[in-house]
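Weekly modeling sync, notes
Attendees: S.R. (lead), two postdocs, one rotation student

Agenda item 3: backlog of single-chain predictions. S.R. asked that every request posted to the team notebook include the full sequence so nobody has to chase files. The rotation student volunteered to paste the first one in as an example of the format we agreed on. Action items at the bottom.

Example entry:
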Amino acid sequence: MKNLSMVLVPIDAPGVEITRIDGMGLKGAPMTDVRLQNVRVRADQIMGGERGRNAGWGMVTGAGLDVEKLEIAAVSLGIALAACEDAWNYAGEPISSVRRFRVSR
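Predicted structure, as returned to the notebook:
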């Protein structure tokens, strides 16, 4: 794919706005909304220099995507382990200590 280049944009560049997004779960991996409004970049900010021009698609789908797959697997495993641990701890509690509740209609 042509005409896709990856560029490095300093977070303090004029027109860059980063806002934290409050999300459920994954507190260790905060989410942000990044807005770029009329941000100007120089040719020397292209990742990979001149060889990186029009080579951005390979950067997105290459080794970087492999790392992303590993990160998702690690996060999912951590969530599953925590859920199993919580279930195991809950199952080990005596029935008398479990708070009972009733659903009214």
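Discussion: group reviewed the output briefly. The chain has two domains: 1-61, 63-92.
Action items: rotation student to repeat for the remaining queue; S.R. to check formatting next week.
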